[in-house]
Design goal:
This protein is an alpha+beta fold and 103 residues long. It has helices at 36-44, 50-53, 61-68, 77-88; strands at 3-7, 16-23, 26-33, 47-49.
Length: 103
């Protein structure tokens, strides 16, 4: 079954939908977005293994590709991609993640 994640990245108001589909020991990604940087990112990470997903941030394929695609440092899309992959592998519950500014 495919994991589908919608990302509301905040101020930029760009739309992002992430589809993660487990195929054997890899997850196949399909990312739809009206953000040129996220589109560029999606070209670099079409499939990811569990081993690649679990690497530390400084050596993680998603974060490296996000840097190469020139995503803003606080863009939540790389995290959302990893959460989708983690859920698709059955390593995490499909629960929402929130960042809330408190006044």
């Amino acid at each position: 079954m495919t994991t589908k994640v919608s990302v509301n990245p905040g101020a930029c108001k760009r739309n992002v939908i992430i589809y993660a589909n487990k195929l054997n020991s890899k997850v196949i990604l399909n990312i739809e977005s009206d953000c040129p940087s996220v589109v560029e990112l999606s070209k670099k990470i079409s499939e990811i293994s569990i081993k690649e997903m679990a690497k530390r941030m400084d050596n993680n394929i998603v974060y490296k590709a996000a840097s190469e695609a020139k995503l803003h440092p606080t863009c939540p899309v790389p995290l959302a991609i990893l959460k989708a992959i983690e859920a698709e592998f059955g390593l995490a519950l499909k629960k929402d993640v929130k960042i809330l500014f408190m006044d």
